[in-house]
Specification:
Pfam families: AlkZ-like. InterPro entries: AlkZ-like. This is Crosslink repair DNA glycosylase YcaQ family protein. Residues about 1-10 have low confidence and may be disordered. The chain is globular and about 60 Å long. Helix 1 (about 15-25) packs across helix 14 (about 330-335), helix 6 (about 110-120) packs antiparallel against helix 9 and helix 10 packs across helix 12. By secondary structure, the protein is an alpha+beta fold. Strand 11 and strand 12 form a beta hairpin. The protein contains 18 helices and 12 strands. The strands form 4 sheets. It has a 4-stranded antiparallel sheet. The longest helix has 20 residues, at about 165-185. It has helices at about 15-25, 35-45, 55-60, 65-75, 95-105, 110-120, 125-140, 145-155, 165-185, 225-240, 245-250, 255-270, 315-320, 330-335, 335-340, 350-355, 365-370, 410-425; strands at about 45, 80-85, 90-95, 185-195, 195-200, 290-295, 305, 320-325, 345, 380-385, 385-390, 400.
Length: about 425
């Protein structure tokens, strides 16, 4: 691809940060992934709670892929769906599932204990449910959720639905057992069928010892835990930057101080002399150095790269330091037209939900437009020149943002962006 020259006019701070993130996210051809599994690997984890939105998010970060490619990636076991972090469903590669899950499992121990107490679930119940599920999977193959639940009812682990109170308890027990068995690494979701992911045996996936912590594992207290957190930070900063420690903390639920240390470790790791040495897929897997920077004050404040030397030592420095791949400013300069083009992105897209500070992408009115009920249910969005200009609720037409400067050009580009995505999802 021929690099485009950067525009001469300066880009204001909010829009510059958004355009940098668009490039880092793989939403321009220069940084897009060769296939959907690699798109997920670069991001480490992609929001997956709305099953129908996942293919949209993945093809947006690849060139030339279609719905059939997404189906194959799950069917062949390259991608899986689970609750590896943030207490939320995410998509990961099969290779990353167990070490990522173990590295962050301690963040949800309290929630699991509370849920078990609330719904009257004992560890013996969990063990029986796991054994029942694994036996059924061995006999029948990947299971729809309804089949798994019926098996648990037959085993006496769940009572058939009755009145309102019992239905609530039954629903709570069902969800707790399913999430708990994913959290413990017993079950995971794989192949897609009828707009759901079928449940499979997670024990067949690569173990945590194959991750960044090596034989030391990745769980808290293990020898490999710090290395695992550094790898989480590396992939997040590479695929989402510029980001702060607060952004990473929100993405993972790690404490801000621990997130800051992980980012510092990632900078040190990626700037080591032997980093990615001998790795034949370094470019494909975006194994690039990270750097620190600061965003200038005011609406026209520009990104000021600080470099990788030293460290952000004080709490104040860490709070104001942003982390990004070192080549990101040059990538934006060479691909600014692609970064500014109109994008049609999925519900729960990482460009929006992957950060604590989303002010560079939209304002408070835009946030209400994307998530009108403030209930965690997000709408597909249209982004133009780095800013949200509209949303497109499923089954409905466009709803324009109040600040969008509508024009014949914008309306044409929005229509084209939607049509391109819909055509790819139909194949």
């Amino acid at each position: 691809m021929t690099a485009r020259a950067p525009r001469k006019a300066p880009v204001g701070r909010p829009r510059q940060a958004s355009l940098l993130r668009i490039v880092a996210q793989g939403l321009v051809p220069a940084t897009s992934a060769p296939d959907v599994a690699e798109a997920v690997r670069r991001q480490l984890a992609v929001q997956g709670q709305q099953v129908s939105a996942v293919p949209h998010a993945l093809i947006s970060r690849t060139t030339g892929t279609q719905m059939a490619d997404v189906e194959r990636a799950f069917a062949h076991g390259r991608l899986v769906r689970s609750w590896p972090m943030h207490g939320t469903v995410h998509i990961t590669t099969a290779e990353d599932h167990h070490w990522l899950r173990e590295a962050l499992a301690h963040r949800y121990e309290s929630a699991m204990t509370t849920g078990a107490s609330r719904w009257g679930v004992t560890q013996a119940d969990v063990d029986r449910a796991g054994q029942s599920a694994l036996a059924l999977i061995a006999e029948e193959g990947p299971l729809p959720r309804a089949r798994l639940i019926s098996a648990w009812e037959e085993a006496g682990l769940l009572a058939p639905g009755g009145g309102t109170a019992s239905s609530q308890v039954g629903s709570g027990r069902r969800r707790h057992l399913i999430v708990r068995l994913h959290w413990q690494g017993v079950l995971v979701q794989g192949p897609r069928a009828d707009n759901e992911h079928l449940v499979v045996d997670a024990r067949a996936l690569p173990g945590s010892e194959t991750g960044p912590g090596g034989s030391g594992g990745s769980a808290r207290g293990s020898d490999g835990h710090r290395a695992a957190l550094a790898e989480i930070a590396r992939r997040y900063a590479t695929s989402h930057g510029p980001v702060t420690a607060a952004d990473l903390a929100r993405w993972t639920t790690l404490p801000v101080g621990q997130a800051a240390q992980a980012l510092e470790d990632a900078v040190e790791m990626t700037n080591a002399a032997d980093y990615a040495a001998g790795e034949p897929c370094a470019a494909v897997r975006a194994l690039v150095p990270l750097t620190r920077a600061r965003m200038g004050e005011g609406p026209r404040g520009a990104l000021a790269v600080m470099g990788a030397a030293g460290s952000a030592s004080s709490a104040r420095e860490r709070a104001t330091t942003v982390y990004l791949r070192a080549d990101l400013p040059d990538l934006l300069a060479a691909n600014s037209e692609d970064a500014e083009r109109t994008l049609f992105l999925a519900s729960f897209d990482e460009l929006h939900v992957g950060y604590k500070d989303r002010g560079c992408l939209t304002d408070e009115a835009g946030e209400r437009l994307i998530c009108p009920g403030a209930n965690g249910m997000f709408r597909p969005l249209l982004v133009d020149r780095g800013r949200v200009v509209a949303v497109r609720p499923v089954g409905a037409g466009l709803v324009w943002a109040s600040g969008a400067r509508r024009s014949a050009r914008l309306e044409r580009d929005v229509e084209r962006a939607v049509r391109r995505v819909e055509e790819r999802l139909a194949r």
